[in-house]
Design brief:
- Strands 14-15-17-18-19 form a five-stranded antiparallel beta sheet, with helices on one face. Strands 2-7-5 form a three-stranded mixed beta sheet. It has a three-stranded antiparallel beta sheet with strand order 9-8-12, with no helix packed on it.
- Helix content is 14%, strand content 35%.
- The chain has three domains: 94 residues, eubacterium ventriosum atcc fold (Sandwich); 72 residues, no CATH class; 47 residues.
- Strand 18 and strand 19 form a beta hairpin.
- The protein has 227 residues and is mainly beta.
């Protein structure tokens, strides 16, 4: 089977250690083209509670999460075998303690002021906010954490100048869907600059799917350029 036809079959049973369960833990992605594999592998498809030992995740739900996060995976997910993936936790209390410390809900909150207006559901970008001194939570619940894309989003339409409490500063989007950036495309020893549009909202450090005006798909990787 060629890369262009390669599909991914979800496993029936998996074992994990952390709270966030990614597609890379649910299936063998080695048959995918490298760029697509790097974009799809870190997509979070489920979360396990701190005290949970097992979890059953419908394969249809996993497939939908992946298709929304990485459109190019739309026809590549195979839901054969059992209708659900049975997830089991491995590891002891140390794993849970580490997981809790790194959970977005447990990180010390920081306050920010909106530099630009935001629409309901829009990702909050790094350039959309500026740090300010925390006061008495002037806009409680104004932002929420989108676990699928790992970014903070506006719960409602918001105006520039509003002060809010960000759930986790690391969830600010480094790239926002629809933004156009100039990127360097490497083809062997040749480096070509071109403009590409972001196809998803992602925080810093997460591979970004982009598209050129000619319809070519690219994956941006921090400090590694675009392939």
């Amino acid at each position: 089977m060629s890369f262009a036809q390669a599909q991914v079959t979800l496993w029936d049973r998996v074992e994990v250690r952390g709270a966030e369960i990614t597609l890379g833990q649910m299936a063998d992605l080695s048959a995918l083209p490298e760029a697509l594999r790097l974009a799809a592998a870190p997509v979070i498809v489920a979360r396990m509670g701190n005290r949970a030992e097992t979890l059953r995740v419908p394969k249809a739900e996993i497939a939908e999460h992946v298709r929304l996060a990485v459109p190019a995976m739309r026809d590549r997910i195979v839901e054969s075998g059992t209708p659900e993936v049975s997830v089991s936790r491995i590891g002891g209390r140390e794993d849970r303690a580490s997981m809790a410390v790194h959970s977005p809900a447990d990180v010390t909150r920081q306050c920010v002021e909106l530099v630009h207006a935001l629409s309901a559901g829009e990702a909050v970008g790094v350039a959309d906010v500026a740090p300010v001194a925390c006061q008495a939570d002037p806009a409680p619940g104004a932002l929420y954490y989108d676990a699928l894309h790992r970014v903070a989003r506006a719960r409602r339409d918001m105006l520039a100048g509003e002060r809010v409490v960000s759930p986790w500063i690391a969830t600010l989007a480094a790239y926002k869907r629809g933004e156009t950036k100039e990127v360097a495309v490497k083809a062997g020893p040749v480096v070509v600059s071109r403009h590409a549009t972001a196809l998803q909202d992602v925080p810093r450090g997460v591979p970004l799917f982009m598209a050129t005006a000619e319809g070519h798909a690219l994956v941006a990787r921090p400090e590694r350029g675009v392939q």
